[in-house]
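Database export, one record per block. Field names are fixed; values are copied verbatim from the stored entry.
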Amino acid sequence: MLDFTKILQIIQKYNSFLITTHLNPDADAIGSELALHDYLRILGKKVSVINADATPYTLEFLDRDRIIETYDNKKHREKINSFDVLFALDFNQLKRIGVMENVFRQSNALKICIDHHEEPENFTEYLFVDISYASTGEIIFDLLKSDNSFQLDLPIAEAIYAAIITDTGSFRFERTSPKTHLTAAELISAGVNPKTIYEKIYDQGSLNRLKLLASALKSINCNSDQSICYMRITLDDLRQNNCGEADLEGFVNYCLSVKGTKIGMLFQELEDTVKVSLRSSGNFPVNKIANQFNGGGHFNAAGIRIKGRNLDEAIEMILSAAQSYLNKEEE
């Protein structure tokens, strides 16, 4: 159980705060940032949200006032050095913030990590990590609720609800707990419309994204017993459909819809990297595969970024590692 007393004391003591999150931010990252930002602003604090990557268009509705800035070294390097406190949300290894890593690491500000992933790096003075939580948004909710004077408003409730529904797979992933549902109920009581939030995140994609999904589905392959299922997206696929990395959100889950599949993978070719999204069902720890290649994540959901290999080489390498893990499980 996390004790939020120290964070509340720090918030009370200091005046200026930076909030940031991981590359290619998802709804848990964006929702957590915006909820914490609004809370700090209500308290009269100076606060900025700066991310290495832009907000995906499907999540822009959460950032009504366009608060979130995309990092620019000339504009933001000195600004980041001016904050009293730096919050790292929904990640626990500094490599996960890309071009912001060095300026974050070198800052003399007090650093606080709030996260729910395993194997955190020791880069902050205060580490609030609890892997029993289904989402970082749920941790932020408990943090705000620990302030007895806090009054939940609709923008904060919507931001946290978006964080929770995406990281729980709409309440179907294993870490979804009774408490998760009780939290969601409180958010709905505050005015959140579940249908509206779901539609804006999942049902408002572009026609190009749908065509990209068609390409991904056509690429699906499995190993001999269909225990591993994977899809691939090339740079040409992205360019032909005028899509970016954010448009692939959720694609990998289709791999797990094949009967008998234990591991699903999405291989995405980028300019100088191959991004691998891993998902599993049941008791298979895909984060163990990710850790082998300097990646990370959750038990059933993890990721890897591979440099120095082309798409085919990356596929062969990760498939081989996954098969080895499956073979050990069967022994």
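Remark 1: The chain has twelve helices and twelve strands.
Remark 2: The longest strand covers residues 273-280.
End of record.
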